[in-house]
Design a protein that fits this description.
Chain A: It holds the Pfam family GMC_oxred_N. Chain A: Keywords: FAD, Flavoprotein, Oxidoreductase. Chain A: This is Choline dehydrogenase-like flavoprotein. Chain A: Belongs to the GMC oxidoreductase family. The structure holds 2 protein chains of 2 kinds. Helices cover 21% and strands 18% of the residues of chain A. Chain A is α/β, with parallel strands linked by helices. In chain A, the strands form 4 sheets. In chain A, strands 1, 2, 3, 8, 9, 10, 11, 19 and 20 form a 9-stranded mixed β-sheet that branches. In chain A, helix 1 links the parallel strand 2 and strand 3. In chain A, helix 1 packs parallel to helix 5 and helix 4 packs across helix 9. The radius of gyration of chain A is 24 Å and the shape is globular. By secondary structure, chain B is an all-alpha fold. Chain B folds into 2 domains: 55 residues, no CATH class; 121 residues, no CATH class. Chain B is elongated and about 80 Å long. Chain B starts with a helix and ends in a 32-residue tail after the last helix. The chains are: A alpha/beta, B mainly alpha. Chains A and B meet through helix 3, helix 4, helix 7 and helix 8 of A and helix 4, helix 6, helix 9, helix 10 and helix 11 of B.
């Protein structure tokens, strides 16, 4: 069970702030080591196996908005991630001339309820980028340090994929990948002509069981709605709940952490939080504090934890907390495949994501930008929901009658109805997700002018893309056109040009933000040491993506999980040695 | 008694505060959140979402006259045919009514567009849209339903009809009737085993030879995975 309000005088061994990927993994590993653990979550408890929480398998008509997004669920009315870009009572600000959009999920499992389950290991090069191109910084650890943990994460959580032997895309312990969908086969054929690899996706859904506690995927395409069979990874169902069942873990929900409390020596003593239920402040004590509130929220808590020994916020002697904030780059393009018009019907839902993808395949030495990107593909005969049948005022012309004459755009009537049926499942597209260069000048700080409804000072963001990312986006657009065209598709819309930075997504929009509490060997230029322990507060650790020195062209979750496991092992060993 | 009522009473000074705050029983603090109007989204809703759905469902945007026009218009866009019923039979007007409140930016173009139909009818036929004959109505609709041919002077009405077409189509195809008409086969538990062979053949695509031994075999979906030290699946 979880506590909505509990005032406790007992001292926990560890307090973990946040129940997402990092916090969830820490709760599991630390409780299995016999430690008493309190997990604090700003949102509510939630279990997709309970019918009252279930949105999985609900047809569109059960939503009065037919699945359209809302402020609280911008990715759709049935999406399980509660929060969004703009949370009532929890504002953030941006410096003039800069942009950043901050996505938060307020619920057990955090943003693992949202993500696409793309589970890629960082490769050896991804930890040593400065050595390769001179930009940014190297991590203080390398692939070999994390490999054993990636292996364990694969086996604990499950990921499907194929062994490829690509140096910087390390293989793991893969479950069998699902066969490609039809549009994916077209893309594979097209990409082959351009010598681009398209390989099975690497996603954390159980195509086969890994234990007797979680079910297997039944291919409904709805991982974003949370799985009643626990066949996909989310931190709540796969880490936090099992940890609570087996170990000494207490879950505090609706608990908005304001600060880390410290003693006169500067060591952490616990946390101070506001209960959203009674709007009162509570304190909890512990021997160790672990922050896993997300890169920006953890930085916010640290910056708001000011004391005599930590005048700039705990962990912030270097002034680096909030600095080097960076998100993945993102750009997209869409097309329509004439060969898929009037297509045969069958159940093509598959898993909740792509069955194939393209890892980065080029040499940057021959290009005018420094880092790579991977490509995700989408399309197919997905469940009709809000938006189906839209845009026939511009799209209907792609339909041809038996004599090859295009249908006129717009219209009405039986012919329109038939044409929408004919065009269904014929559009497809792709999204590039790439590596940006971390910048000291891209950061978040406390905005002293604004507090949220809990009275906690909010974050102010400063973020601008550089030429590196803009050139990368331009390259993405050229590649997208090439693949779509080679696959036989007709391009839709105008190619994004320099006026939109080639369609480069606003920082934050890819929801891969990292780097705000980066690790390093030098305490003057980093917040954490190579074990994700604060340089200036030895019993304070960070387990989200804040410690990342650089965000590779891979989704960050698998690395958050591996790193959180490694950090948790270190905490256990340091406690045993009585070093903390 | 909830917190807001407490505060209201405190500030109006009608009762002593101590008594009020201690008199609240735990039951009082729990607001009654059970939906009173059917039709809100089910599944894991937070209080703010239940309240918002209830609020939107309790409001009415379209006037009775607008609603009559809407019924006519959506059935022009998605009529009944041999294979399925019409937009009104699929409940599309209720969906559009809801969307006006859920996405208020729709309100002005929709209301304005329906007014434009009356204005045009008055100017050219001396009748409002509802008073027109079916043929007369269709003469007006044909002016605004074909964006590439429409006169630039009536672009606003064309935009209105584009929005109406979008909402009508989405409203129709997201119902059970629409799913059936479309032939959507998903949203059921199944064991995906790739695109049917005859479909692949027809499209001239095939599975890459290289991956054939590795793709998921549906008959192995019940077997717990076991790997060797190199990450090869051995059981």
């Amino acid at each position: 069970m979880s506590f909505e309000i509990k005032s406790s005088s007992e001292t926990y061994d560890v307090i973990i702030v946040g129940s997402g990927a990092g916090g969830g993994m820490a709760s599991k590993i630390l409780s299995e080591a016999g430690l008493s653990v309190a997990v604090l979550e700003a949102g509510k408890d939630f279990d997709p196996a309970k019918d009252e929480d279930r949105t999985q398998l609900r047809p569109s008509w059960e939503s009065p908005r037919r699945g359209a997004g809302t402020r609280i669920r911008p990715f759709g009315d049935f999406d399980q991630a509660i929060g969004g870009w703009d949370i009532e009572g929890e504002p953030y600000t941006r410096a003039q001339g800069t942009s950043f959009d901050w996505f938060r999920s307020r619920m057990v499992g955090g943003r693992t309820n949202h993500w696409g389950r793309i589970s890629l290991r960082f490769g050896p090069n991804d930890f040593k980028r400065k050595s390769i191109d001179g930009l940014g910084d190297n991590w203080p650890i390398g692939y070999d340090d994390l490999k054993p943990y990636y292996d364990r994460v694969d086996k604990l959580i499950g990921v499907f994929g194929s062994k490829e032997g690509i140096y910087n895309e390390p293989d793991g312990f893969f479950l069998p990948p699902p066969k490609p969908r039809l549009h994916e086969l077209y893309i594979m054929k097209g990409a082959k002509k351009s010598n681009m690899p398209v390989i099975p996706g690497r996603l954390s859904m159980l195509t086969r069981p890994i234990n007797n506690e979680r079910g297997v995927c039944f291919f409904c395409n709805q991982c974003n709605r949370a799985c009643q069979a626990y066949a996909d990874f989310s931190s709540g169902t796969c880490l936090v709940k099992p940890a609570m069942q087996k170990g000494n873990v207490e879950l505090y929900t609706q608990a908005m952490v304001r600060s880390v409390t410290t003693d006169e020596k500067g060591n952490a003593t616990g946390v101070s939080f506001i209960s959203k239920v009674d709007m009162k402040e509570y304190k909890l004590r512990s021997r160790v504090v672990v922050l896993g509130a997300s890169a920006c929220e953890s930085a916010r808590i640290m910056l708001n934890s000011k004391s005599k020994t930590h005048p700039n916020g705990v962990g912030n002697t270097s002034g680096m907390v909030g600095r080097y904030l960076h998100d993945s780059t993102g750009a997209d393009r869409m097309g329509i495949m004439p060969d898929l018009i009037d297509r045969e019907r069958y159940n093509e839902d598959g898993v909740g994501g792509m069955h194939v993808y393209t890892p980065w395949w080029l040499e940057n030495k021959k290009l005018d930008f420094a880092r790579g990107y991977h490509i995700e593909y989408w399309g197919g005969m997905t469940m009709p929901s809000y938006g189906i049948g839209f845009s026939m005022d511009t799209m209907r012309k792609y339909l041809k009658d038996e004599f090859g004459n295009p249908s006129p755009n717009g219209g009405y009537g039986e012919g329109l109805k038939k044409d929408i049926r004919r065009i269904y499942g014929s559009t497809l597209g792709m999204s590039g997700r790439g590596e940006s260069i971390p910048q000291y000048s891209n950061y978040c700080e406390i905005d002293n002018n604004v507090v949220d409804k809990y009275g906690i000072p909010v974050l102010k963001f400063h973020y601008q893309w550089t030429d590196q990312e803009i050139k990368q986006a331009k390259h993405m657009q050229d590649t997208f056109e090439e693949i779509l065209t080679e696959s036989g598709a007709t391009l839709l819309g105008k190619k994004p040009g320099p006026e939109t930075m080639y369609g480069l997504a606003t920082p934050g929009r890819i929801i891969h933000e990292v780097g705000t509490t980066r690790m390093g060997d030098n305490p003057d230029t980093s917040v954490l040491n190579s074990n994700c322990q604060a340089h200036d507060c030895k019993n304070l650790f960070v387990v989200d993506a804040g410690p990342f020195v650089s965000q590779a062209d891979k989704n960050p979750t698998w690395t958050i999980l591996a790193l959180a496991w490694r950090t948790s092992d270190y905490i256990v060993s340091e406690l045993k040695k009585k070093n903390i | 008694m909830n917190r807001r009522e407490n505060l209201k009473l405190l500030f109006t000074g009608s009762l002593a505060s101590g008594l009020l705050l201690t008199n609240c029983t735990p039951e009082d603090k729990q607001a009654d959140l059970s939906p009173k109007i059917a039709g809100g989204t089910p599944g894991g809703r937070i209080e703010a979402e239940i309240e918002r759905d209830q609020q939107l469902l309790s409001e009415t945007f379209f006037t009775q006259e607008e609603r009559k026009k809407l019924d006519i218009l959506v059935d022009i866009i998605m009529p009944a045919d041999d294979e399925s019923g019409s937009a009104t039979e699929a409940g599309v007007p209720d969906f559009i009514e809801f969307m006006m409140k859920d996405s208020p930016s729709y309100q002005t173009p929709m209301r304005g567009g329906m007014m434009w139909l009356d204005s045009y009818g008055n100017d050219h036929y001396g009748k409002t849209f509802l008073e027109l004959s079916e043929n007369e109505r269709m003469e007006i609709i044909d002016l605004i339903a074909w964006p590439d041919k429409a006169s630039p002077e009536i672009k606003g009405a064309v935009n209105f009809f584009n929005i109406l077409r979008n909402l009508t189509a989405t409203g129709f195809f997201t119902t059970e009737m629409g799913f059936n008409y479309l032939g959507y086969k998903g949203n059921v538990a199944n064991a995906w085993d790739g695109v049917p062979k005859d479909v692949m053949q027809k499209h001239g695509v095939e599975l890459p030879e290289k991956y054939l031994p590795y793709y998921l075999k549906p008959e192995e979906r019940g077997t717990v995975a076991v790997w060797d030290d190199e990450g090869n699946l051995i059981g």
